[in-house]
Every structure is written in C-alpha cells, then in structure tokens.
Design brief:
18% of the residues lie in helices and 19% in strands. It contains three helices and six strands; from the N terminus they run E-H-E-H-E-E-E-H-E. A six-stranded mixed beta sheet has the order 1-2-5-4-3-6.
C-alpha cells in the first residue's frame, strides 16, 4: 500500500484511479463517548476530505473511478446531531454520484441496516460486530457501501453467500429499510 500523506493535501484528480476507496473518518466526534461535535468536529469532519478526493477522481476520469466507496464508523454516527450527521453522510455520498436529492431523516431513529437507491447509484449500510469476524472483543461498527454506478450496494453488503464467514443464527440485520432518492424541486 502506498502512503499518500496528509489527506487534506491529496488531489483525487492527480492520483492513480482505483475501483474502490475505503475510509473511516476519525470517530471521536461521532462517538457517544466523545465530545459529540459530530461532522462539524475537526477530526470527523475529515469525512468531507475523503468525499472531496472521490469527487475529484470521478471528475478526472469522466465518472468511471472509483466505482465504490466503503465507509466505516461507530454506531454513534446514527444519533450524532439527532441523526442529522448520518443523513449528511448519505446526502454527501449521493451527491458524489451526481444525484441532486433530498434524503429524509426517518421519523424515529436510523435503523441498523438500510439501503437507498437512486437512478444510477445505491448506498447500503449495516452494523457488523468484530466478535463474529475472529476478533476476541465486541466492536460494533457501521459499514456503508456506496455504488456510484449501479444498484449493487445492498447485494455486496447483505448477500450472505458472498461473505467469507457465517453470521450464525440471529446475526443478520433484524430489519432493512429501503428509500428511493427523491429529486429536489424548486418551488
């Protein structure tokens, strides 16, 4: 793996195009154990640097690369800023795909697994726990897959036959919700 340096100084148009960009913005500002500054916090705000790099790479490659983004963070992102921070994550990733949309926040809280689908892209998320992946501790994290060129995000994240390990009984998401993007209207 090649180290590219300070994320705030990377220009996505100037680095080698890749199929997948994975990132996990620092979680301290989103964690319920942290200061709860949310995406406005200095550390968790680096999420926007990653999406900037993705956007720059897509613009430089006529929207060919990257095809996918994978984001990982703490479950506190669901409740940070009353749920607004997770909505902002979804909104920002949809915008990378060129979707001009308004993603609604659910009436209650965010479900631990879900999917949104647009005309040409999809985003799916779920919580996975490291204890079921060979790590001897409970470490729950949100994993989000964005497919900027199709509707494969949910297939990637939820299709058990594609996973290298069995989740065992009761370890699948209890509920999955699906949203359709709604185009913003002026008026």
């Amino acid at each position: 793996m090649r180290q590219l340096g300070d994320v705030t100084r990377i220009n996505g148009a100037e680095i080698e195009p890749v199929d997948v960009i994975t990132f996990g913005s620092p979680c301290q500002d989103l964690s319920i154990a942290g200061k709860q500054a949310g995406l406005d916090g200095e550390r968790s705000g680096l999420f926007f640097e990653a999406t900037r790099i993705i956007r720059e790479m897509r613009e430089a490659t006529d929207n060919e690369y990257p095809t996918f983004a994978v984001w990982e963070n703490v479950p506190g992102a669901f409740s940070s800023a009353g749920g607004e921070d997770f909505r902002a994550v979804l909104q920002e990733l949809a915008a990378v795909a060129g979707e001009t949309v308004s993603i609604p926040r659910p009436a209650g809280r965010w479900l631990t697994a879900g999917e949104i689908v647009g005309d040409g892209c999809s985003i799916a998320w779920r919580i996975l726990d490291a204890q079921y992946w060979g790590v001897p501790q409970r470490r729950r994290r949100i994993y989000l897959v964005a497919d900027f060129d199709g509707h494969r995000a949910a297939e990637i994240l939820f299709d058990r036959s594609r996973l290298p390990r069995s989740f065992g009984a009761g370890r699948a998401p209890a509920a999955v919700t699906a949203y359709r993007f709604e185009e913003e209207t002026n008026g």
